[in-house]
Prior knowledge:
globular, alpha/beta, two-stranded antiparallel sheet, 179 residues, 4 helices, Spore Coat Polysaccharide Biosynthesis Protein SpsA, Chain A
Amino acid sequence: MSAVYALGVVPARGGSKGLPGKNLLALHGEPLIVHTIRAARAASSLGRLIVSTDDEAIAAVARGAGAEVILRPSELATDESPTEDALIHVLDTLEQQRAPAPDYVVTLEPTSPLRTAALIDRCGAEAVGRGAGAARRAPAAPAKATVVPRVEHGVRHARRALACNALGARASSGGGGRA
């Protein structure tokens, strides 16, 4: 993936109702989100890593672990907010900063703390090798590609999106996740 610019995004909202504060709960003595950040920072396939959150405590922990943070508005961090909206917000923010546009956006959910840097790299290589628009591990998922749309000057553009969890990757129709 050396010629491909992949942006890692960790969507981590603060308002979980099922397990309040889950992204900051300790796992082996460290906040859950730190495990994902460490694996992502060690992955050679990611050109940049950003945590998207609405929560200042999560932002502080993420920065302390070496991740960049983009704070998102609360309306993009509800129980009904799809992960794709958080990704689009990150892309729009980077565009406003005149940052290079990524070829792929790699979604790294903080609730998959067993994911390794090697798995992230393998996941990305699979997606690029297949030309997939999205890769997401889902047993028996159809091999379809999806893209994350975004609006630029009133025109919808597509960004390739990729989700990589602890089990691996598979091309998928994506969607349905909550950030």
